[in-house]
Amino acid sequence: MFQKILIANRGEIALRIICACKELGVRTVAVYSEADRDALHVRFADEAVCIGPPRSADSYLNVASIISAAEITDADAIHPGYGFLSENANFAEVCETCKITFIGPRPDVMQLMGDKNKARETMASLGLPVLPGSGVVESEAEAVQAARKIGYPVMVKAAAGGGGRGMRAVESAAELSQALEAARNEAKAAFGSPEVYLEKLIPSPRHIEFQVLADQHGKVVHLGERECTIQRRHQKLVEESPSTQIDAPLRQRMGHLVVDAMQKVGYTNAGTVEFLMDED
To answer: Minimal CA–CA distance to 102: which of 23, 14, 8, 223?
Structure first.
């Protein structure tokens, strides 16, 4: 059991982790930017360390500052929450080098799965259904060509993160340039990387997720599916389980595919495999 955990996040997710740690008798360290000095997670944690100015790039995405905070407070582990550095393989690797436990998947698995473009390629090779899409687009000309091949409408998506950030829907070629620039800028600010790729946009899809838990001995289980279709700005508002649109045979088939894929990539810890379900 860890004695002290640093939470490399803020807001509700940091509060939820603090509450869980208190139930387990584990001390917590909050980190905060100058703008979040009076935030609830700072007040509720056992200790708190300022890690930089208000901009996320200079605070919550600043690996050196977070590692320094962990070392100064003698934290055993770092919990990244979600967003920010939670899918950053370099951060997990730095934690490992500094003998601080990263609460999440191994760096090599994160390198594979944290990059949405690589994750798409890997999941497709393991038999999971994947929407038509592109690799990382390096230029507007490349994006135009990829969108033409996929067929409009398309979605521009950040390769290095999720949580609804760095995403723009594009209905026609005339909208692509502006959407590409906006998605890149948002991805850079949120995840520290401007890389984006294109994916076929499914109008009014159902969002179905399978929650998985995996230990370090190769055992993987899924906890069934959740319906997460009710969203605002690509962020889930309501989760319902089980989904009313998934019957028992489909649930069994998709669950088996998910567990098999996670075993083959060597995934550990908690994770979510997300699917879009069209009207057909």
So the answer is: 8
CATH, residue 154: 3.30.1490.20
Instruction: Give dist(CA 105, CA 88) in Å, integer.
Output: 10
From 52, 85, 104, give the residue that closes a domain: 104
Radius of gyration over every alpha carbon of the chain, rounded to an integer in angstroms: 19
Check residue 279 and give its pLDDT.
Answer: 78
Confidence of residue 259 (pLDDT cuts 50, 70, 90): very high
Examine the pLDDT at 86 and tell me if it is beyond 80: yes
pTM: 0.76
Q: Which residues constitute the domain of residue 261?
A: 203-277
Closest CA to 230 of 262, 208, 250: 208
Spatial distance between the Cα atoms of 52 and 58, rounded to a whole number of angstroms: 6
- Whether residue 139 is predicted with pLDDT greater than 90 in this model: the reply is yes
The rounded distance, in Å, linking the Cα atoms of 238 and 232 is 10
Q: How many domains does the chain have?
A: 3
Region at 236 (left for phi over 0; alpha for psi -120 to 50; beta for the rest): beta
What is the arithmetic mean of pLDDT over 74-96? 93
Model confidence band, residue 161 (pLDDT cutoffs 50, 70, 90): confident
CA angle, corner 40, sides to 35 and 42, nearest 5?
A: 70
Residue 14: CB atoms within 10 Å? 25
Q: Are 218 and 212 in contact (CB under 8 A)?
A: no
